[in-house]
Sequence to fold (873 residues):
Amino acid sequence: MIRIVATLYALRTVWALFLAFGLGALLIAVSGGNPLSAYSALIEGAFLDYWGISGTLVKMSPILLAGLAVILSLRGGLLNLGVEGQIYMGGLFSSSVALYVTGLPTLLHLVLAILAGALAGGVWGMIAGLLKAKRGINEVIVTLLLNFVAINLVSYFAGGPMMQEGAPYPYSEEIPEGLFLPIILPMTDAHLGVVLGVVLAVVLWVLLRSSTLGFGLDLVGRNPQAAHYAGVNVGHTVIMTMFLSGTLGGLAGSFEVLGLKHRLYHLFSAGFGFDGIVVAFMAQLNPLMSVVTAFFLSGLKSGALMMQRAIGLESTVVDAVIGIVIICVAASQAFVFKADQWRAWFSRRQRLDAALAAQPQETR
Amino acid sequence: MTAPALRLTGVGKLFGEFRALDAVDMTVTAGTIHSILGENGAGKTTLMNILYGLYEPEEGQVEVFGKPVSIPSPRAALDHGIGMIHQHFMLVDTLSVVENIILGLPGQGLRLSLDAHAEKIGALSRHYGFDINLHAPVWTLPMGMRQRVEILKALHREAQIIIFDEPTSILAPQEVDGLLQGLRRLRQEGKTVILITHKLEEVVAVADRITVMRSGRVVAEQPVAGLEKSDMARLMVGRDVALSSYDVERPEPGEVVLDARHLEATNSHGVPALKRVSFQIRAGEILGIAGVDGNGQSELAEVLTGMRHPDGGALTLKGTDLLPLTVDQRRHDAKISYIPEDRHHTGLVLDLPVWQNAALRDFRRSPFSWKGWLRPRRLREIAADWVKRYDVRLRGLDQAVRFLSGGNQQKLIFAREIEAGPTVMVVMQPTKGVDVGAIELIQRTILKARAQGVAILYISTELEHILAVADHVAVICGGQFTGILPRSEATLERVGSLMTGISETPEAA
Fold:
């Protein structure tokens, strides 16, 4: 009996998905669409056909990296809500190096552009780490507010000093074609960023699992007092965690520019930094799991467009369905199964059965 | 004769197998200050939690003003006129004094008449001579004032019996007098005060009667008049302290290893906690630190291990200055091992498995890791070996440490700290919350380390346990050493009187 419950529990995310799609169907039906055709458009548009998958992978690059950034910070006991800003800083510095540094061999130039983006994101994240370690200032607020600074900095540069002459919209010159990230699915926009993201997910998993650095970071996250006792420098670890987390955000922005946009646009990230929070929680802070959850969330986002087109739903309804899915999945994760508790409940029932069986027939 | 404010008969409380209270009888006369004395774990707090409705006793009866009552919740306690001032205040920092006092007050309806309450509370405050700004947010007030807010809260709820749980533990010395004045004022007004404390001066200063508790039992109840502080200390520490110690070889101590001079430090509230503490420990010597809890012991251990920065003084290990070294350097370069008082929050990470906790101290060193990478297989081998040799009872190495018993957790920490091959060991309250069998094993482990030439500082509030192993006993009181005695001279009477702050050392040079 316990085993059945445990199996049902292990599959709780699947049940949550069914529930969510059921609720979503209700919503679609109410707003005058056919849920079945809507969902088939969604699934086909996200995961089944070639173009659909490529669209999913394009979105997955920044979403996965943002998820990894959030996971790293949370494992270290911090919450980096500033991934969005770090994406913008990464994009700004990568595009600047790509546009204004000249005379380098292409490959070196590309690596330099990526590093510049990573470093910019890292420094942007480290500001919060420094303030937290030295002054005890809440990193959640600092990172959140720095988002607005970064977004507006990019708007200023894309619409001012870096703006292409005569452009109808704030964006920069196109970066040299040699610096475009390679395309992984021919004829589509799917670029190498997502592959690098998966590689980084594995690297992060290994680091957290078996390096002394990762163990120290995890200790600080779990119990800073014990980490201090174990000789870990808690302040340094906080600063390093925020730097590394910001680096991942910076890379997300860098890959967006080098792989997809090829220019610095103002407002170029559609809230990917915040999608990262959803990815991290759904993956329960496991970097490997985050590959799956990022793929899923990206699929929903790109499939939603298809769904919208296929049955002419308003985009607000589509957003609402995605929201329901996320809430249900997240709620299923928060649902904790206590085997002992269930065992106690079952044994109570069995005791009752036994007592009834032991009673003579006539008194029943 | 009027009924006593409170009468307990045969009250008992069990936590699982553990008997926290055993047939407790107590009578508190109305309009008096009644103090409950006892070491940590004697059952004082359990008893008070029963009176305040946080626990329900399994046995016995509670009478309030002559009426038998049951107290299932704090609200019920308040209905019976029992208020409690917790050790850690239950106040909302951002709300004002008035708002805090009426927070949760029953019968308010939907409309809040702050002004009416403010007037009444103001009158109450003036009546008791509490000089307090009712509209100030609580976080702007010093600790002594916050305590007055708690007292006003109880008075505003018309409490007749007010319980104070170690009220002076977080007060600055100058605030203590104010509190004691307040207690006397409460008595004048006919309130009954129950004062839980282990500070004897306070008892002598204000209390009318005391009840002394030890291991869940009441060992004495008598008027304070005519009692000496040293008598109370003896009652508290209790029994005939077994001077028999473990029969192991005691080699002659070697050279001086640890030398502390005039150490000064403040506690986390910014109050001075260590005052010019000086001592030396030789190789193969155990210096016991006796004293009532909260007299600077934690700060001393933290200063030695680098977890707290001292404000002054010098600390050397075999001539090398320790003070500039970080926690990590002290552990690995100076080879200081530390058994912290708080296993759950300092010594272990409860959610991590046993084998990872075994690596907590040295995970960045060989053989636990190699060039920045953990070696899980090696780690498990080492942990398995320690678990066997130190008799840590568990289901498996992957079990989270949370699920080990206190004694087994402590044995794991000892294994980790001793196998590191220390020069100095700081051992704090090693026997706290540990069963008798584990205590013996832990004491023997400490003696074995001594035989290997480790210099050991053994801090405990259990005098009996100190005397069983220590070579010298230093007594700490109010952050100062009031005396350092060789074990042969450390009689219960002398240590007891030193614990009350009667100094035998003229200001150490």
